[in-house]
Here is the input.
Amino acid sequence: MKNRLYLLLLFLLPYITLSAANEPKHLLIVAQDGSGDFTTIQEAIYAIRDYTPITPITVFIKNGVYREKLIIPSWKCDITIQGENADSTIITWGDYAGKEIVYFGDSIEEMGTFRTHTILAAGHRLTLENLTIENSAGRVGQAVALHTEGDQIIVRNCRLKGNQDTLFTGNEKSHVYFEDCYIEGTTDFIFGPAICWFENCEIRSKQNSFVTAASSAAANPFGYVFHNCRLTAADGVTKVYLGRPWRAYAAVSFIQCDLGEQIRSEGWENWRDPNNEKTARFSEYQNTGAGAATDKRVSWSRQLSKKEAKAYTRDNVLGGNWWQIRTTK
Here is the structure.
């Protein structure tokens, strides 16, 4: 009997070993020096099973400057991309809207804003953390660092660096949660239609201009909500608007934020179209700081009542507590 069992195990051993070898890894390591599984982040992303993998996968990126135009397509979901250190794990690229590209063989056209991204995050249930994401094109017009399209995306402890149009949050049905992030830019540097919550982030203006340019859908009760954030500015920057409506029903709220002295007393601008004043949904609640005075705000913005402010919770805005379930803290 023992001999038969021994022979059976001996027969099955190659298949057991092969099956274990073929199991997908739950941790992929990217290192430029060759000490990991891949030397580029894009290689690691493409190696992950399409659509939902059997278990969520973490791509851990060792410190370094990764010069990549990274695409996380819609069929790559349930992935955490985690840097070793937010200041030292840098993903950078330098495309910009006016850059000429060859299109369909021989046609030359300008790139346009929505192809300028350094990272395009189109998959669902993605987490980006401990990263610097940079568009290095300089002040040459629209140049996106991070472009989100997927739903239930978390961006935690990341530094988003650029100038005009640094962060584009695409897709009016998507929900994105930003926590402990640094986001800098010049004009309209947080823009798009997605529903987003910004928690404990520093929002830094690099020139006199506009922070947000939301294009929220009329059917969405919330657009951008900034909670417990700090609005700061570079030296010499003294006239910054909280936002203007890229589309008529733009929705932006600043709640219990510290607004620096660079914030203009009127707060908001109508994008040179008085009709937007009838539809834009710009509001504030219990902000502090030199730029928080409300007595000169434009008449078509609102100061929320205590009762109204109770509706502005992360779960209400983000459509559930998925942002909390997936926390790694």
About this structure: Confidence is low (pLDDT under 50) at residues 5-22. The two ends are 53 Å apart (CA to CA).
